[in-house]
Amino acid sequence: MDGIQKELLEQVAGLHEIPRGAYNIRANGKGIARSTTANIDIIPKEDKPGIDIRIKANTKNEAVHIPVLLTESGINDAVYNDFFIGENADVTIIAGCGIHNGGDAKSQHDGVHRFFVGKNAKVRYVEKHYGSGDGKGGRIMNPTTIVNVDEGGYVEMELAQIKGIDSTDRNTESTLQKGATLIVKEKLMTHGTQYAKTNFLVNLDGEDSSANVVSRSVAKEQSKQLFISKIVGNNKCAGHTECDAIIMDDASVSAVPELTANCVDASLIHEAAIGKIAGEQLMKLMTLGLTESEAESKIVEGFLK
Amino acid sequence: MDGIQKELLEQVAGLHEIPRGAYNIRANGKGIARSTTANIDIIPKEDKPGIDIRIKANTKNEAVHIPVLLTESGINDAVYNDFFIGENADVTIIAGCGIHNGGDAKSQHDGVHRFFVGKNAKVRYVEKHYGSGDGKGGRIMNPTTIVNVDEGGYVEMELAQIKGIDSTDRNTESTLQKGATLIVKEKLMTHGTQYAKTNFLVNLDGEDSSANVVSRSVAKEQSKQLFISKIVGNNKCAGHTECDAIIMDDASVSAVPELTANCVDASLIHEAAIGKIAGEQLMKLMTLGLTESEAESKIVEGFLK
């Protein structure tokens, strides 16, 4: 790996070196390093680009890193990864993607991730998207995530796109069986003329299933954001979705949550708020000696933490 | 007017007799009574069914009643009413519609109301929809309401459809200029296999314009409801939309609010909650001697009050 790849790896996966445990590192459309453990197998797909990640039942406290790095300009990388998580497993999956585009051609990564989470399994999924490089070529990421959670399963997703992605169309679709839980925390920041669309669909099919989808975003300069979140209650269930956005400069933000209750025992709530940074907050920090732009940065940082 | 028409008139307009002041009563597709005052003129349209209601500037504390009654089965009545409200006027407009269908043919009323609210004028608009009759013919109402509020204008809308309408597709679109205010309070109840769709669009175009759109609904038995509410902030403005629904039996409810901020000084909020009547509330009333169904009625009544 060269310096740029190492920098991207740190940004998207918090890694300074090759990780311990299971991993698969993909760079510029090709797998460049792979490691499996006794409990976690990684098998390249034969019919299309991508891997199957098979985690044995009862696997505890293990992690899988599957970062994707794009450093060549003009690359168009699509990848299909399937995760099979055995019953009672308790694992962390870290799946960031970084694009460095120093050229004038568009670089694009479309990742389709499907999760099959076994009974009573617990998964923490972390996905960071990051872009860098001063080329004129666009940095584009369109992730699709399909999550099936079996009885009693628990999935927590931390999704972040803080910097450098020019256009993103994010789709996450999940179906929860009896007693299953989904927690989503999304953080988005756009600047320049960036565009970000994010679309969640949660089907609460099982009795006592529950979902909490929370998105926080900041839109700066001329950027545009569209947030869609649908929760469908088909059984006795609880769903909550929330979208809070800070709007700055000439940006625009739309929030379109959708609740559908098809069962009398479905309890669904959503909230959203879009507004600029409160004047009093800015004033307070400026009284403490910060410039206006330092104060803004501080508030945005706290909001997205 | 016969007994059924008098009963409808009481339900939709709270009237026991012909009202004082300005009014236009329409029954089965024809105007049957009209009265104007020195400040409020009512002129039948020449190119299509409907009336122009012209309210002079500075008119204070006057009311206009324009109820519509359908008592023949199989009638299909479309009407176009335009309201021109002069500067600084302060008036109440009561525009209910009642359908009594005792036959097997469909009875339908499509009313298109356009409001041109002058500078600093204040309008209270009350619209009640009600259906009765034990015929198999459907009772259908599709109201379209377009509201233009000039600088400093204030419009408060109370929209209610509590009983007897089999299908409704309600569209309300409003545009607010500088300092204008819109308050909407909607109450809906559906039962049987009824369907209700309600769609609000509020364009906050003017500086310091504001809107508050609140809908409360109860869906019983096999009925279905869809609530859509879009607030678009194009200037320094404040918008709030809220939808609270009680779901009962096998009903289903969808809520789809949409906030779009196109200006950094737009402050927009929405909230929604769908759920059944809380068990504790029922228990409390039953401890006081009410049956379960009496307790439910009491809670629904309080919720829609």
UniProtKB/TrEMBL annotation, chains A, B:
SUPFAM superfamilies attached to this UniProt entry: Stabilizer of iron transporter SufD
Pfam families: SUFBD_core (PF01458)
Gene Ontology BP term (one): iron-sulfur cluster assembly
Domain SUF system FeS cluster assembly SufBD core: 85-303
Annotated PANTHER family: FES CLUSTER ASSEMBLY PROTEIN SUF, UPF0051 PROTEIN ABCI8, CHLOROPLASTIC-RELATED
Similarity comment: Belongs to the iron-sulfur cluster assembly SufBD family.
Protein name: SUF system FeS cluster assembly SufBD core domain-containing protein
